[in-house]
């Protein structure tokens, strides 16, 4: 008799559990269907130009970072053909127009939606992308140097002086930006901890690129100005590299504990690659630009050769680390390719790998290795192809309402 009672009780519990599971499954299914219906309504209801401009986020400037970076890698590629300079100039001019267009649209966003615009500076997913605006300016300065002085052969005093003034202005603004962005994030009192994302690197990047720009412009500056640019560039590059080291450690731990991000966001995993790559470029370029007969180096004649050797071997030391980060990101992307939809994080396919490509080319030049230089040329071709893919996908995403649409951009939680 007790056994029969227990059986009946167990059957009732089991039936009740199955009933609850059915209700839960039906509820979940209903929520999914509701979400799909709402998403369909959201995609089909009329949204005007004003509403779309409202959702033009700071992440759009990753596009100008990458387009300007493409012009730089074309300027640096070792195996050249007639007309490549002209192609680079066209891309440079196109990037200037694109930057002005995005800046105008961002100003329009501020005017028509001021509350939404200013809230973006405190909103975690979007706020860190503000640094991409300053990084775009750094790239424009680098393009001015490459196509106006280095390749253009225009040793006009006014242009060299203009680039120097822009460098110092950028140095001040980029450091202030990196301080205030990290301070705002540290100072806030969040309801819940924010998940680590590669966008955390960008404010530090904006200061770190000061060192990279210094390495590009220093050799064309007068010795008196060159020394201050090299010293400041070294300091800024060290700051950016150490900030990146902190975040690389945090990010690797985050990946080990939580696994890979959503496939749509995996292209952003290439961002840490640039931290090591741009440091290689900065160290080698600054060492090569040292004025041997001026100031400290005039009284220490062997110092320049020593620093150039150190820069080369530290660069080799860092390259393999950049390759490791690149490989992790590449495997993650390949594993989610079939499930990957376009987001603005796709532009991370380009900009960090511009740095990786130029760093490889610089090492090849210093080691006088034709093999490494051909690897750099092959990487250049890959960067060009991936930029074309990203550009087409970006335009298509705007047309098909995947981005710049309510609830689908970095500001969707605001």
Structure description:
By secondary structure, the chain is mostly helical. The chain has a single domain (52-399), classed as Glycosyltransferase (Alpha/alpha barrel), CATH 1.50.10. 75% of the residues lie in helices and 0% in strands. Helix 3 (61-76) runs parallel beside helix 14 and helix 3 runs antiparallel to helix 15. Residues 1-43 have low confidence and may be disordered.
Question: What is the topology?
Answer:
Blueprint: H1 2-44, H2 49-54, H3 61-76, H4 84-112, H5 114-119, H6 124-127, H7 131-150, H8 157-187, H9 202-217, H10 223-258, H11 271-288, H12 296-299, H13 303-335, H14 351-367, H15 370-399
Notable traits:
transmembrane helix; mainly alpha; 414 residues; disordered N terminus; single chain; Glycosyltransferase; SLAC1/Mae1/Ssu1/TehA; Mae1
């Amino acid at each position: 008799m007790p056994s029969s009672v227990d059986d009946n009780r167990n059957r009732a519990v089991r039936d009740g559990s199955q009933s609850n599971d059915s209700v839960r499954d039906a509820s979940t299914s209903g929520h999914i269907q509701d979400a799909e219906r709402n998403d369909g309504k959201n995609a089909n209801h009329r949204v005007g130009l004003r509403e779309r401009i409202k959702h033009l986020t700071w992440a759009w400037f990753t596009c100008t970072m990458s387009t300007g970076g493409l012009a730089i890698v074309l300027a640096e590629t070792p195996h050249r053909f007639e007309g490549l300079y002209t192609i680079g100039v066209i891309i440079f001019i196109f990037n200037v127009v694109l930057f002005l267009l995005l800046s105008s649209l961002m100003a329009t966003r501020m005017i028509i939606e001021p509350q939404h615009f200013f809230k973006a500076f405190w909103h975690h997913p979007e706020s860190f992308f503000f640094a991409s605006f300053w990084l775009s300016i750094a790239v424009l300065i680098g393009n001015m140097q490459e196509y106006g002085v280095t390749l253009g052969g225009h040793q006009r005093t006014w242009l060299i002086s203009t680039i120097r003034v822009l460098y110092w202005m950028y140095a001040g603004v980029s450091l202030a930006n990196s301080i205030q962005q990290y301070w705002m994030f540290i100072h806030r009192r969040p309801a819940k901890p924010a998940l680590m994302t590669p966008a955390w690197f960008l404010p530090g990047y904006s200061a770190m690129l000061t060192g990279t720009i210094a390495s590009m412009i220093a050799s064309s500056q007068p010795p008196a100005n060159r020394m201050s640019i090299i010293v400041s560039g070294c300091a800024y590059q060290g700051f950016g590299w150490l900030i990146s080291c902190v975040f690389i450690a945090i990010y690797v731990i985050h990946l080990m504990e939580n696994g890979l991000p959503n496939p749509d966001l995996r292209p952003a995993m290439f961002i840490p690659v640039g931290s090591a790559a741009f440091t290689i470029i900065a160290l080698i370029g600054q060492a090569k630009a040292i004025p041997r007969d001026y100031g400290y180096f005039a009284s220490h004649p062997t110092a320049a050769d020593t620093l150039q050797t150190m820069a080369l071997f530290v660069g080799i030391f860092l390259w393999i680390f950049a390759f490791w980060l690149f490989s992790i990101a590449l495997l993650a992307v390949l594993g989610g390719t079939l499930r990957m939809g376009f987001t603005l994080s796709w532009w991370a396919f380009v900009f960090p790998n511009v740095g990786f490509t130029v760093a490889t080319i610089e090492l090849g030049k210093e080691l006088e290795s034709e093999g490494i230089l051909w690897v750099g040329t092959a990487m250049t071709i890959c960067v060009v192809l991936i930029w074309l893919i990203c550009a087409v996908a970006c335009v298509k995403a705007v047309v098909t309402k995947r981005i710049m649409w309510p609830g689908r951009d970095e500001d969707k939680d605001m």
